[in-house]
Amino acid sequence: MNLGNILRSAANGWDHNSAAGRLRNKRFLLFVEIAKKFPPPVKILDVGGQDEFWLAMDRSQLPEVDLTLLNIFPAASRLPNSRCITGDARSMREIGDKEFDIVFSNSVIEHVGGLRDQRCMANECLRVAKAHFVQTPNRHFPMEPHFLLPFFQYLPHRIRAICHGSRDLGWWKKAPGFFPALEEVESIRLLSLPELRYIFPESNIFEEKVLGLTKSLVAWRSI
What is the DSSP string of 101-140? Predict the structure, then answer.
């Protein structure tokens, strides 16, 4: 097994036995505790999510839920008591104030645009639900989580695009050219702890640690 395969295996959150899978399962327990504070069925809005995530998790620990998956593309869900809707995380105009009990979002806010766009998504998450659980990778963790290269996030966009256009990297296949590669690397804006605190000023922040380093961050609030 080459180094790339080893890194992908360790970072595969869908594998419950991988390092990333164990961390994801542990993190999910915090969400379970938030959900238990609401009477069932708990109305959950997963912003930017897909049913693969929920199918991979141990949902037996959750109370009865009513799940809505919001994404920018049309989809269908295989989960019971669930539905898919299309929308923009930065402006969920189709959803009323506090319409949901909990907003859940896993590794999405780093993909919605710049800091202003990320703040718009945060404000919408606060508006549409009574509680929230918004997870994102930590910008300052040494291993960039998409391309699985150490410190890749600190390189200029142009250099990252050249690398992405030259070969497969991490979870991403080789881009077909420089400008498609540039589009893709610019579509990722990892957040730091101070930035997450800025856009979620009244939320609790959970820091997920690996070897003493913060791997990912969760902005959360319960009732």
Answer: EEEEEES-GGGS-SHHHHHHHHHHHHHHEEEEEEEEEBTT
Write phi, then psi, for 221 (nearest 5 degrees): -150, 135
Give residue 32's identity as a one-letter amino acid code. Answer: V
Tell me: the pLDDT tens digits for 29-39?
999 999 999 99
Shared domain for 28 and 77, answered yes or no, is yes
Q: Are residues 139 and 151 in the same domain?
A: no
Please check whether residues 17 and 66 belong to one and the same domain: yes
pLDDT at 27 exceeding the cut of 90: yes
Give which of 184, 150, 186, 147 is closest to 168, Cα–Cα: 147
In whole angstroms, how far apart are CA 186 and each of 155, 179, 200? 12, 10, 23
The verdict on 59 and 96 lying in the same domain is yes
Name the domain count of the chain: 2
State the pLDDT at residue 32.
Answer: 96
Q: What is the pLDDT of residues 155-214, one digit of tens each?
A: 999 999 999 999 999 999 999 999 999 999 999 999 999 999 999 999 999 999 999 999
As a whole number of angstroms, the distance between CA 147 and CA 41 comes to 38
Q: Would you tell me how many other CB atoms lie within 10 Å of the CB of residue 37?
A: 14
Please tell me the pTM assigned to this model: 0.90
Domain extent for 13: 3-143+189-221
Identify the CA nearest to 221 among candidates 78, 37, 74. 37
